[in-house]
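Exam prep: given the inputs below (a chain plus adenosine-3',5'-cyclic-monophosphate), describe the expected output before reading on.
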Amino acid sequence: MSRTFTIIKPNAVSNGDTGQILDMLATAGFRLCAMKMVCLSRNDAERFYAVHKDRPFFRRLVLFMTSGPVVVAILERENAVESLRQLVGNTDPAKAAEGTIRRKFGESLTRNAIHASDSDANAREEWSHFFAPEEIMETVYWLPCSAEKIDSD
Ligand code: CMP
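Solution:
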């Protein structure tokens, strides 16, 4: 098992697509380790996307990412980073394959519905912007035996 980080972006949240995206993630075998809805300040967005600060689209990206609430989450699955990037699809929704999240919910290169980390190291760095260690759940707590114990009391 490994972990990755995702952001459901402002266009997907405001279009009411959060539930359907979480359902696609669950259907693909991802378990949630942490999740919250937040509004990014300009400073938050500039720090999160600092690697792109010299790119021509940086200002547009920061404006968009601060335009409304986002849902941030840590996801667990085998081969999590690569599996999520496949499910998310090409950065440009117009080039994303059928069945991918960006193909279904993306509207443009900027309004592309979802972010997915591109390596294990970047995933850890990215989720540290949003989650303290005690907010990240061990999915062992999901084992059905915990429910059985409660029922047998
Ligand atoms: P994301 O996966 O969040 O990582 C960086 C984001 O920058 C990317 O999704 C796009 O939304 C955005 N982006 C990348 N390339 C461009 C571009 N050429 N024009 C506008 N936005 C871009």
